[in-house]
Structures are given as C-alpha cells and as structure tokens.
Amino acid sequence: MSRFWKIALIVVLVIIVAVVGFRLLHKPSADGSARHGAHDSSGKDKDGKDGDDTPPVPVTVVPVVRQSVPVYLTALGTVQALNTITVNPQVGGQLMTLNFTEGQPVKKGDVLAQIDPRTYQASYDQAIGKKNQDVALLATARSNLNRSQDLATKGYISKQDLDTLRNTAAQYAAAVASDEASVRDSQVQLAYTKVLSPIDGVAGIRSVDPGNVVTTTTAIVTLTQMHPINIMFSLPEQNLDMVRAASQNGVQLPVTALDRTDAHPLATGGVLKVIDNQIDTTTGTFRAKSEFPNAKNELWPGQFVNVQLLVNTVSGGLVIPSQAVQRGPDGDYVYQVQADSTVKMQPVVQAGEVGDSHVMIGSGLNADDQVVTEGQFRLKPGSKVKALKPGEVPAAPSAADMDKSKKGGRQGGRRNR
Question: Residue 66 pLDDT more than 80?
C-alpha cells in the first residue's frame, strides 16, 4: 500500500472515532427522560419553574408588625464633672494639718487644711490696736472742738483756731475709717489660714504633706463635683435640625448612658442641656452636653460611654428582625413569602434600628407581610418554602424521603456522566 492510502485510511479512522465519541457523550438518558420528562438537572421544567418532586425548603418566617418605635441618635461620649476645682491656699505659710481623706466626699465649707495662723493673728491684733488708738484721738479731738465752739460764740477763740480743731477731728475720723479697713483685711488674711472646700465634691489625691511651706501657687488637692454630672458628645451635622426641632419650646430630650459594648444602661434620667453654637468644620459634627443626676455615682469623670439621645417616637412603625434584611448589589432586600408558598426578593429601605435585634422599614413592606428570617442561603426567587415559626425545628426526613433523595442523586450522576 502506498504512503498516500495509508494517510487517507488514518484520517478516515480518526473521523469515525470522533463521531462515535460525540454520539456517546451526548446520548440522552432513557431512564432520566422517562422519569423526569422535560425536567433538567436542576429540577426545573422547560418553563423554569420548580418541579413537583422538589421538596419545599424549611425556613423561619415572621410577620411584619406595627409598633411604636423610639428614634435614637447614638454617639460616643465623655463624662465630665460639673465643676473641677484645684484648691490653692490664698496665703502662704507652713502647712499644719490636712483635714480630708483622699477619695472621700467633702461638703462645701469643710476645712481642708490649716496653715500656721500666728503671723496673721499678730497682724490682726496690731490692726485692732491701731484702730483703738485712733478712736481715742478722735474722741479727744471732738471734745476739744465742742468746747471751742462754745467759747467761739463768746469771742474767746479765733475762727482760725476753731477751723484747726475741726480739721483735726476730721483727720482722726478718717484715720479710724482706715483702721477699720485694715482690721477687716487682717481678719480676711487670718481666715485664709483655714483652707475651706468651695463645693460639695470628691477629694482627689493630695499634692502636699503637712509641714510643707505653701504659697498661693501651691496646689493642695483637686475637687470634682459629682452630683449632677455632665456627658459631652458629638453628633453629625445632618442631625442638627432634627435635634433642634425636637428640643424646641423647652422640651428636654431624654438621654441614656450605655456601657462601651451597649449591653446595658449605666445611667438613666439624663436630659439634653446644651447644643453648641457652632459646627466643627474639621469633623462636620456639633457638640452637645447632657446632664445626669448621678445619685449612685454610676458615672465617673473621664469615663467613655455610649450615649443614646431620644429625638422622636414613630407611632405604627413597620418592624422586622434585623437578620431578615440581606445586602445585595442593588441595596437591601428581604425574602417575602407569597400566597403560593414561594418567595420573592423584595427591595426594602431601612428607617432605623429598633433595639439590638430589629429594624424599622421605611418602604417596601406592609403590615402582616411574611418575611424569611432564617434559611435564606438556600433560597432563590421562586423557591417553594415551608414556613416555620421562630424556634420551630423542621421534622426529620422519613425513610421514603431519604430513598427518593438517594435515587435522585444516582440519576443526576448518570445525567452528569
């Protein structure tokens, strides 16, 4: 056989093998066609609908409910004492005693420290003595003036001498007035040797010890006023109009302080006191101040807390569990159960959070609509579902169901092959 015919024979054999292999790979399964008819490997018929033999997917379903929904604004806040005062002595001297305990409450007017008073006591006594001396001289000058006035009417004393006596009495009167001012000044300086608490508060850690010589620039202790107490926080500028509108006409908006994990309230009964008069251009926020009674010292200066500001209460808001809301490329959506027990993807718009586990829906749903809260990962639009109540567990599959599932798996394997 020539080389040409050998090559031609090989080409013919290759074509025959290719045709036979193609027919074997694309030969329809007789069992699969007879059993499933026009259904494809996904369990759908030619119209794209689920076949009758596809079991419904068990999912948890809850209805959309109406309820009054409080609208909160949340922010990170810092606790600040209503007053923080560093106590400095107003006179210098040796510190004799400290009469407070660190970390303990003090009352307004309590003696916090005693400075050596002996020098100031001596100055006070000296001022008293000088005043008494000038009072005596004033009395003598007035007596001389009174006698001279009687004699002047009879011509025994000249008018010049009478004027001199009158001016002398006035001079001693002025000296007595000056002495009284010196006495008051000395008395004040002497009183300053007792360092008093200017407020009700809590004493901090002392800065000096007894025996030290202190001056007017020496800090003795810092006092913080705890009742009431403030929390400062910042909100985005887009919330300014909402907060101002809600606080008009003297309405005090309630404020709650939560711990850093939002697990429980640390303090309640707070109210919004002040909205700052300008917006921070670097952060786009405005500051606000709230005030709490802090009767049990739940809040401590410098503490970081989460703040909840109640600005409104929506009556009849549509509420669903937050896990029902899914995020898609076109926004938020839920799986809504329809009358024929199939589901559809329903776009929704959230209007705010309701506690830790629910959200309020602004649009997309109506009251009593059924939405899926668990099992969404097994769903697609048009899937048949078996609605379960929250906490309800689907029944275990029967032996017939298990056998049917196994047969379906084997047939699907043959179709794939």
Answer: yes
Please check whether residue 81 is in contact with residue 57, taking contact to mean a CB–CB distance below 8 angstroms. no
Contact 165, 152 (CB under 8 A): no
Secondary structure (3-state) at 126 = helix
CATH C-level class of 59-69+317-392 = mainly beta
The rounded distance, in Å, linking the Cα atoms of 314 and 336 is: 24
Instruction: Look up residue 13 and give its two tokens.
Output: 């054999």
Q: What tens digit of pLDDT does each residue of 259-269 get?
A: 887 668 899 99
Long-range contacts (CB closer than 8 Å, 24 or more residues apart) made by 177-185: 179/127, 179/130, 179/131, 179/134, 179/135, 180/131, 182/127, 182/130, 182/131, 183/124, 183/127, 183/128, 183/131, 185/127
DSSP state of 206: -
CB 111 within 8 A of CB 221: no
Based on the number of CB atoms within 10 Å of its own CB, is 393 exposed (0-12), middle (13-18) or buried (19 or more)? exposed
The first and second tokens of residue 293, run together, are 């009674």
The DSSP result for 93-107, as a single string, is EEEEEE---TTSEE-
Pairing between β-strand 370-374 and β-strand 57-63 as defined by DSSP bridges = antiparallel
Query: In 47-157, which ranges are E strands?
Result: 57-63, 65-81, 84-87, 93-98, 105-106, 111-115
pLDDT above 90 as % of the chain: 54
Structure tokens at 44: 């759908």
User: Which class in CATH covers the domain with range 93-215?
Assistant: mainly alpha
Compute how many other C-beta atoms are within 10 angstroms of the C-beta atom of residue 210.
12
| Confidence bin at 376 (pLDDT 50/70/90) | confident
Going by C-alpha positions, the residue among 234, 238, 230 that lies closest to residue 276 is 234
- In the chain, which residues fall in CATH 2.40.420.20? 59-69+317-392
Among left, alpha and beta (phi > 0; psi -120 to 50; other), residue 61 is beta
Q: What is the pLDDT of residues 348-371, one digit of tens each?
A: 998 877 877 888 898 899 999 999
Annotation: CATH topology of 71-82+224-315: Elongation Factor Tu (Ef-tu); domain 3 (2.40.30)
